[in-house]
From TrEMBL:
Protein name, per record: Methionine ABC transporter permease
Intracellular or extracellular location(s): Cell membrane
Major location (coarse): membrane
Presence of the UniProt keyword Transport in the record: yes
Source organism of the structure: Neobacillus piezotolerans
All copies of domain ABC transmembrane type-1, residue ranges: 12-204
SUPFAM superfamilies, per the entry: MetI-like
Lineage: Bacteria, Bacillati, Bacillota, Bacilli, Bacillales
Annotated TM spans: 16-39, 51-74, 80-100, 145-168, 188-210
Amino acid sequence: MLVNSDQIIEALIETLQMVGCSLVFSAALGIPLGIALVVTRKGHLLENAPVFNVLNGTINVLRSIPFIILLVAIIPITRFIVGTSIGTAAAIVPLVFYAGPYIARLVENSLLEVDPGVIEAAQAMGATPWQIVFRFILPEALSSLILAFTIATIGLIGASAMAGAIGGGGLGDLAITYGYQRFDTKTMLITVGILIVMVQGLQSAGNIAAKKIRRR
């Protein structure tokens, strides 16, 4: 049995759902963590070595686990949260665990690129630490953050395809079920082509948006 266009469209929608939902939850986790990693580090606004060391170590541990292993390792957590370990909703949980720490590192790197002179100027004006973060550092780092989230989204697309290995749904599941297990080369090529187009489109859009922000 060959795959049809309806199955491809359904798989594409599932992939978009996985990537979109996991990006939102990962950003909600990663942005605060990234900010905390910056402001609590030595010599920064809210220097706090114990907090920084705990956050830094935890993120390093999570980022060191290959995604395919993470998928299996947190199955009990996935079942507890969504009630199942198979399907699109179940794939979102490990995707968040995978992308959250990654986004935290990307945010950290983007914020550290901000010229220290900007922070010094804000302090001279009497701004509080959180005013400095939200009114000075984040706006200055916006162009870099856009590129960072572009990279994170592309990473999620690749990870969502890998989630198909355990029945996560989406294009990855379609490629494995039909393209690999049933030797359907056409389906494999179609799914790979769609993923390439998605990645190219996202990267181009991210580059354009970052360039426009940089010119302001």
